[in-house]
Amino acid sequence: MTPFARLFIALLIIVPLSFVIASLVNGENSFEKLKETIGLGDSAPTKDASTADISKAFEKEVANLEEKIEKLKEENNDLLEQLNNKENEIKYLKKQMNTE
Q1: Where does residue 2 rank: exposed (0-12), middle (13-18), buried (19+ CB within 10 A)?
Q2: Mean local confidence (pLDDT), 2-13
Q3: Measured between alpha carbons, how far is 9 from 46 in angstroms, rounded to an integer?
Q4: N or C: which end of the chain has fewer CB within 10 A?
Q5: What is the 3-state secondary structure (H, E, C) of 5-64?
Q6: Cβ neighbours around 19 below 10 Å, total
Q7: Cα 16 to chain center, whole Å?
Q8: Distance from C-alpha of 39 to C-alpha of 29, rounded to nearest angstrom
Q9: Residue of 50, 11, 56 lying closest to 32 (CA atoms)
Q10: What 8-state DSSP symbol labels residue 2?
Q11: Which pLDDT score is estimated for 51?
Q12: pLDDT at res. 35
């Protein structure tokens, strides 16, 4: 047997075995994941479930971002008010300097 044939046979055994071990370590169902990867079996329900999960996660992220936007708007308004107060104070101090 040639070295390439030995390598090919070893890869046919090692690659699927390492995939199964990695899936088990990650806490996933390795055979279902393998079926999804290869495209065998009925994977439509899991896709629908994952789509629903993605939609919920997306909605949650949008709500968080909207809340963050509102906080930033409030902070921006506060900073604008502080800026106006400081500008008025500068004008007042300049006016006092000119009168003295």
Answers
A1: exposed
A2: 93
A3: 33
A4: C
A5: HHHHHHHHHHHHHHHHHHHHHCCCCHHHHHHHHHCCCCCHHHHHHHHHHHHHHHHHHHHH
A6: 14
A7: 29
A8: 15
A9: 50
A10: -
A11: 81
A12: 78
Q: Which amino acid is at 91?
A: K
Where are the chain's structural domains?
A: 22-99
Reported as a single tens digit per residue, the pLDDT across 22-73 is 888 888 887 777 777 777 766 455 556 678 788 888 999 999 999 999 999 9
Q: Which residues of 33-54 are buried (b: 16+ CB within 10 A; e: fewer)?
A: beeeeeeeeeeeeeeeeeeeee
Tokens representing 56 are 């919920």
More confident: 15 or 85: 85
Residue 52 C-alpha from the chain's centroid: 16
Q: Which residue has the tokens 């890869």?
A: 11
pLDDT of residue 33: 77
**How many residues appear in the chain?**
100
Angle at the Cα of 52 (from 49 to 55), degrees rounded to 5? 150
